[in-house]
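hey so i finally got around to running the thing on that chain from the lab meeting. sorry it took forever, my laptop kept dying and i had to restart like 3 times. anyway pasting the input first so we r on the same page abt which one it is
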Amino acid sequence: VGELQNIVPSINWTLYFHIVFNEYILLDEPIVVLYADKYIGALESLIRQFDTRALTSYCLWRVIASLVPDLSKSFREAHYELVRLTQGAAPHGIGSHCLLNRADEAFAQPMTYLYLKISIG
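ok and heres what got predicted. didnt touch it at all, straight out
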């Protein structure tokens, strides 16, 4: 956790893991396996390149995308048509967009936390 704190210092990882797992995890506990340390380190600087409006739009888009299965049939159909047109495949097909979706899922919470910290203070 301490190494992760050094890579991305703007996120309080002890607090983040407390919120996610409902327990305090000390910085010297080696419980986090980080395979993409260069990626996550660059992620912070990438996020800082965008203005608050772009990050807000991204966060709203992720919330809406996660709720698609619970929305009305007409909204789901419109969403699937958008996916088909923008990604050139069926919404549940295999392709590079699946990897991007997995990356979005993995980093959505830390990115949201960082956005809130930057915009709210």
